[in-house]
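## retry 2 of 3
previous attempt timed out at serialization; input unchanged, resubmitting
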Amino acid sequence: MNKLSQRWQNTGMWGKLERLKHIAIEPQKADSDSFDCTMNEYFNHALGKYSDGYEDDRGGALLLAVCRGKVSEGLDFADNSARAVVTIGIPFPNVKDIQVDLKRKYNDQQLKSGRQVMAGNSWYETQAFRALNQALGRCIRHREDWGALIIIDHRFSQQPKFQNALSKWIREQFQCFRYYNEAMDSLKTFMEAKMKKFSPPRCKSEPRGIDPSNDCSILPAGDTSSMSVNQTEPIELSNDSCEEMFASSPS
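## retry succeeded, writing output
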């Protein structure tokens, strides 16, 4: 993630994105205060809940995070807290990690001895897609929630086993696009239809997992209106242009 952020800053992409949305980055250190501050800042911008006198006409926020982190597995981004999740690549565990290597060898040995366990490679792939499915599900948190799930990896269009490894509710509506413009047209149509048909809910309470006792500004409480749609729009993009894609998402 650091390399990607640095590249975007060097190429000017970061500045273009920042003109469209507030950008927050998941802290690397396991510091509760810094994490809570970052997340409260993100939710405030995503939901348009600012401190008195503060104005921001960019509309929404962009949160950069890693798989197997607090953001991708430990927080809910229901309703307008997030309307899109973009994943880049497949989060396979580090093949050079000693524990990963030993686990793969152990499973292979147990399989040869007649035990009913997954082969080492099967276990390895399962860990990757478990993390991917966890991340993709962050913005679909209840039956009436909706959002776009965007998977950027060409392997999903070439190898059926990768699509089959996705959660069933994602596979049922999976669409693969060969060209970037086709993907963008589908994404825009989906977002515009949902935003036009359903009124945005207001945050009822602080997002789960965030400590409201810190010194950062906290989201105010309010009523939550429900939505009557249960639909996702998973798509694959093969173009490295991100500006237009993030401009289409309301949060």
